[in-house]
Amino acid sequence: MIRAFQNNVVLPFEWRLQRYEVFDARGKSVSLVLDLLYDEKEKAVRYVITEIGGGVGVSGKRVLLPVEIVERAGNGILQCEVEEKRLMDLPPLENRENPTRKDEQRIYEHFEKTPYWEAQPEQPEQTAQPEGDEASRQAKPKAKAEEPPLNLELDKDWKSKQ
């Protein structure tokens, strides 16, 4: 993984979060977005890099927030679904810039989320077949839908446009 802002990765609008303010679940401002960890192979943002705690002249704790626990909540605002204390309790990592799979597992366990490498792609809804003769049970061919973008993780709004 690489740092997206530091390496000038061209990101879709929804991931242009540099210097966004991070708010916890109680609405408290807890930090600023410093950068994003970007998976070059999968072309997906995996983590928000931020620093929690600290103050004027004092460094805080640098943490990786999985993208599954944050969402853009307005101009300059990134909303996190957990409270600041839980962010502060995140276990330390060997290398925050390039976490090992073990580190990533610990992060996802801490936030009680399914890791991105285990997440199942959304399946289309199955419809019940009508009862009756064999011909009426045959599925009618559907019109071919527009092909989705290659990286749904980076284009979350694609489905809502359909």
Description:
With 162 residues, the protein is of the alpha+beta class. The protein has a domain at 2-110: Photosynthetic Reaction Center, Chain H, domain 2. It contains four helices and seven strands, in the order βββββββαααα. A hairpin with a 5-residue loop joins strand 2 and strand 3. The longest helix has 10 residues, at 101-110. The relative contact order is 0.16. Mean pLDDT is 78; it is low at 139-145, 147-152 and 158-162.
Strand content: 15-25%
- Mean residue pLDDT: 78
Quaternary structure annotation: single chain
- Classify the helix fraction into a percent range: 10-25%
* Rg calc: 20 Å
CATH superfamily of the domain at 2-110: Photosynthetic Reaction Center, subunit H, domain 2
Number of strands: 7
- Characterize the overall form: globular
The CATH class assignment of the domain at 2-110 is Alpha Beta
Helical region count?
A: 4
Low-confidence spans: 139-145, 147-152, 158-162
| Main β sheet profile | 7 strands, mixed
**N/C terminus separation:** 31 Å
What's this, in brief?
This protein has 162 residues and is an alpha+beta fold.
Blueprint of the fold:
Blueprint: E1 2-3, E2 21-23, E3 29-39, E4 44-52, E5 61-66, E6 70-74, E7 77-80, H1 84-88, H2 101-110, H3 134-137, H4 158-161
Parallel strand pairs: 2-7
Antiparallel strand pairs: 1-3, 2-3, 3-4, 4-5, 6-7
Quick tags:
single chain; 162 residues; Photosynthetic Reaction Center, Chain H, domain 2; disordered C terminus; alpha+beta; seven-stranded mixed β-sheet
